Batch of 2 targets.
Target 1
Amino acid sequence: MPRAASNNGTLHTLRTREMRKKTIDNFGAGCYKCHLLMLQATEKIWMNGAFVKWDDAKVHILTHSLHYGTGVFEGIRCYKSDLGSAVFRLREHVNRLFESAHICQIQIPFTREAVIEAILETIRVNKIDACYIRPLAYLGYGAMGIFPKENPVQLSIAVWPWGSYLGDEGLKNGIRVKISSFTRPHVNSTMVRSKTTANYANSLLAKREALKDGYDEAMLLDTDGYVAEGSGENVFMVRKGVIKTPPLTSILEGITRETLMQLAVDRKMRLVEERFTRDELYIADEAFFTGTAAEITPIREVDNRAIGSGKPGPVTKELQAAYFDCVYGRDNTHKDWLSFVHAG
Ligand SMILES: Cc1ncc(COP(=O)(O)O)c(C=O)c1O
């Protein structure tokens, strides 16, 4: 079972307390951002084919990816569904991990099937019903120049319990968003179709700025000035009965984005993949973020301008409910999106 942050004297617990204090100093007690940082340890982490204790899951300081941002990773969720614990869209996430690696010319030394099985086994070993799952492929210790020569490719899988990324309150009533002063990388810059650790330096700058300025999340524009995505989410807006989401140019090919698009099509809603500007977003009737961590989070305000009524609108609410029906196994038409942790 996951260890509570306060029930033992491990290094992890001390670090968690320290982080919490720092976050409270920065943002004030009671803010969801404090919970966001409180990583709750589980028992074991899968590293290169074997399980190690949580506190022993360490790498050498000269790990290549630590210096040059060449890791590729995934963020996946396992839900305690009505039909048993199930990982949502596991195969799609593992496929994207391998595609990210392919873009970065990283050869993961395991098959896709082996990674799928290792993820399910990590959940079972940690005896956890619902969790966030973080596979990470990275270049290990070896050469230290930018060219990684023959540094070994390593793979780890960690799982831990994680509540709503943007807070329960945000999920229900919507969040406040700031258009970032940071721009999404150009399509020929860091390859945003790959979920590469380096890309998250850009996300981190934007997120930190937004939180420091009192908002919940950042919205980044692309290099042409059109709305791209959040620091860790894709974005949708609804205006005059049409749902719009930016095309797959400077954004991550989100699996929740694709899920939402399918749910909208199922409901015969009008949806287009089309660029839009920040001022069109200001006058949208509704807007929301999608992401594995953020799930479907309504946006109630952008740059201090209310979106629609300033409350989650009907399209957002319907699609959010539809999404939760899928992940919790209540939607019979999309059961194939669930991979059950315990067979049979
Ligand atoms: C930059 C960015 N965009 C979008 C998403 C949403 O992707 P997904 O729905 O596959 O989690 C994420 C989350 O992984 C992200 O980091």
Note: The chain has ten helices and 17 strands.
Target 2
Amino acid sequence: MAPWIWTDSLSVKIEPIDNQHKKLIIAINALEQAMEDNESKGILTKLIAALKAYTDKHFSYEEEFLIKNSYPDIKEHQIKHREIIDQVLYYEKKLEQEENYLIDFEMLDFLKNWLLSHIMVEDMKYSKFLVDKDLQ
Ligand SMILES: [Fe+2]
């Protein structure tokens, strides 16, 4: 599949967060490429661990930023983040436990769509809140 490309429509108008979203997309593309190239389980495991670590770091940054800016729906947003992390953990565990499990594009698509819809729906909510707040 063609790599996922960041476009302006994904911008939350906060530069460091946009940059982190771009890196997340790169991490997902790297994982997809490795799957397509039939890379070893060891490499896939490393890429998923990297994606999980980066997602964790990004979510922490985002949550701290939202708390600092008094975003009212922070709790709801944190729950959504947790759901995504759980999904990555589930995938990681599956890879670790099932000996013959190597490639699951359905799962990758699921993860991709989930992240994309998170940015487009949930992150856009705080983006709008912060842009409106700044304009006041
Ligand atoms: Fe978020």
Note: The mean pLDDT is 88.
